[in-house]
Design goal:
- Strand 9 and strand 10 form a beta hairpin.
- Helix 2 packs antiparallel against helix 3, helix 2 packs parallel to helix 5 and helix 5 runs parallel beside helix 6.
- The protein has 13 helices and 11 strands.
Length: 451
């Protein structure tokens, strides 16, 4: 190769080819870089999109988890509330549970639990209240007679009402239902300061209260009444079974007339052949029925007539004779009974006197079997003399033609007939309640103006 050719070697075909090859390589390299950048950018964009989706899914899952946690919390509250309501058959414990639900789960600071009285025209009674000590308002005296439009409407139609309630101070009126019938209402009057208002999720708890509170409380009340009645009946049966056995000491038995009727108590004492006094109390009034070996030998109650009144009403004596006997009784020392004085005056015979006593016992028992509420107490071996005739009750038996079983049957028959007449709406009065009277001193009970 000549020196000229060497000097111009770059311009030779070979040199040009090399240059073109280098340029092509450079372009290829740049193109590859561009391709890598585009691919990387696309990949980055895809990854960023995926990351955004993951973040979105995470946020959605977090929200759902929070909702699920709240739902689980509400379900737990509902479960706990339901379990607590039905976990006991003690009425006081059920009331305490209702208060806990209202305070801890609803956040209620002031509330009242209302139940219809047996006679709905008499309004509602307050079964439970909290926060009303200083200002009971419409719920004073343990009763609600109406006045709040929302409460009145809920008691009438059994519908749940939540504030705002026009014309009402209540934040919520929750009906209490048993077998489709509204028996009362839970009225929320004020929430604690940390809870401004009832939340939508509280609706489930309010629905649970409406469905379960009344049934739980009523079931507990029925069990308590049944248990109490069972114990009372066991005591009466024990009296009847052991009536013929000797006892080392006197015993007494007591109970409620809502659990055991007057007739049932008398029946058991009669069957047991027991001796003693059955004392009844109702609304401040008191009555007594004396029994000797299971037979009724005296009876006294509010409105019972004395011996003098009975003889006067029967026409056996006149007012002049009665007045003379009462004057003689006042001046005598020692003081004799009215019956003894009348017999000694020849105004009556002993038989007349005992027949009057029989009538007095019968009419008194007829009245007393209509006592459906109050208390009774049977004091065994505690039998008082009959002051009107000054004879110990045990000694009267041989003179009285009184069949205790027939007296009870007649009393129940009359009671049933009066009830049927009242139910038929004939206008006839129902069972007459003995007239309530102020309790009199023992002496005044048996030694009044009429003997």
């Amino acid at each position: 190769m000549s020196s000229r050719d060497a000097a111009s070697g770059g311009a030779s075909p070979t040199g040009r080819a090399l240059e073109e090859l280098r340029a092509a390589l450079n372009r290829a390299e740049r193109l590859a870089e561009q391709i890598d950048v585009r691919a990387l950018s696309a990949k980055n964009a895809e990854l960023e999109a995926r990351l955004a989706d993951v973040e979105s899914d995470r946020e959605e899952l977090a929200l759902k988890l929070a909702e699920y946690e709240q739902q689980v919390g509400r379900l737990m509250n509902l479960y706990v509330a339901t379990y607590q309501l039905h976990a006991t058959l003690d009425p006081e414990e059920v009331r305490a549970t209702i208060a806990e639900i209202a305070v801890n789960l609803l956040g209620a600071e002031r509330f009242v639990l209302l139940f219809w009285k047996t006679d709905r025209s008499g309004g509602c009674e307050v079964g439970l209240s909290q926060g009303l000590e200083e200002d009971p308002g419409l719920y004073a005296g343990g009763a609600y007679g109406g006045g709040d439009p929302a409460v009145d409407a809920t008691l009438a139609d059994g519908a749940l009402r939540i504030a705002p309630l026009e014309g009402s101070s209540a934040l919520a009126c929750v009906p209490l239902n048993v077998q489709g019938s509204t028996v009362g209402a839970l009225v929320i009057l004020k929430l604690f300061d940390h809870k401004a208002m009832l939340q939508p999720e509280d609706r489930e708890l309010l629905d649970l209260i409406a469905a379960h509170v009344a049934s739980a409380l009523f079931a507990a009340q029925v069990y308590s009444n049944t248990s109490r009645k069972l114990k009372t009946m066991e005591g009466l049966v024990s009296e009847a079974v052991s009536g013929g056995r000797a006892r080392s000491e006197s015993t007494s038995l007591s109970g409620n007339l809502e659990d055991v009727s007057v007739a049932e108590a008398l029946q058991f004492i009669h069957l047991g052949g027991r001796t003693g006094t059955l004392t009844l109390q109702r609304d401040g009034a008191e009555a007594e029925i004396g029994l000797h070996q299971g037979r009724i030998v005296n009876a006294w109650g509010p409105g019972s007539k004395r011996l003098g009144e009975l003889l006067l009403a029967a026409g056996t004596i006149d007012q002049r004779t009665l007045d003379a006997a009462l004057v003689a009784q006042e001046v005598e020392q020692p003081r004799r009974s009215l019956g003894q004085i009348l017999v000694s005056m020849g105004a009556v015979t002993p038989d007349d006197m005992y027949r009057a006593v029989e009538q007095q016992i019968e009419h008194t028992v007829y009245d007393l079997v209509t006592w459906t509420h109050g208390t009774f107490r049977f004091a065994a071996d505690d039998l008082k003399p009959i002051d009107d005739i000054a004879v110990f009750p045990g000694d009267v038996i041989q003179h009285l033609r009184l069949d205790t079983q027939m007296v009870l049957l007649d009393a129940l028959r009359i009671f049933d007939e009066r009830n049927r007449e009242a139910r038929r709406g004939t206008g006839e009065p129902g069972p007459p309640a003995p007239r309530a009277a102020e309790p009199a001193p023992p002496a005044a009970k048996r030694a009044g103006a009429n003997g």
